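hey can u check if this looks right to u? its 297 residues, i copy pasted from the old doc so theres a chance i mangled smth
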Amino acid sequence: MSWRGLPAGSLPRDVVRIAVGLVLIPAVAILALSFAMVQLLPEPGSLLFPLFLVPLAAALLAGGVLLLLSSRELSRMSKNQALFVAQASHELRTPLTTLRFLASGLEDREKARALENAVAVLEAGIHRLIDWGRLTGGQLHLRLLPVSVAHVVGEALRRTEASLAARGQRVVRSGLEDASVWADQEAAVSALVNLLTNASKYSPPGSTVELGIGEKGEWVTVWVRDQGVGIAPGLQRKIFRPFFRLPFVESQGVEGFGLGLAIVSQVMAAQGGKVTLYSKPGEGSCFTLWFRRGQRE
């Protein structure tokens, strides 16, 4: 089974729903009411009110048509924007590769590490922009197969090892050793990398990040718990929105575009799974990836 991302131009569908639900349907209802009143009212003078409703209905119909036309234009703009983001992000990869090469040749290793860390941050941001461009442009292809959770966890830890070590942090694992889940392997690894990266960024240097694998009915869960400041209840739904960033991140100097969790949420849903959050202010946060079990016909 494969998934090709969100259909191109799918984001403006709310506009269509508004046009149909709040404009077109009331317009048709008003027209029907006015004609019914014309038929039922015997006095000519009493026709003024239903006739007054006709231009109101016509105005609503015209507004509905304009909204529908606007939704088509928004659909086209959404697709073009997604393609631009993906192309621009690809173009930025070459200079970053050059910077990484130059950093490797620096004699001052402290400056070299600082440059390498800066390049790593930029690369992570570019990868997220590329993923978001593919996702919203309908170009993200997922191949769903039975996948080993142990492999997903091992690869995610390998990719985040350097960034965790740079902050003096370590990962403590618990739970099942392995399980088979229904997923796209690379998408599953990227989702877990995102959670581990966030846990590292929002936890103090020298702290511990917890990672666990569990089972709940038809689900296999992979969870990551940090030692950060936690997230207020009113913000917990918002963090899965694209480009949303928590209010305190700027003062803490945490880099990012606010796209990572939005991508994780969309990609997990496309695999038949989900991502959930449990958090209390002052007690850190625990993000859980929910995967379907891997054996399917």
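Confidence is low (pLDDT under 50) at residues 2-26, 44-53.
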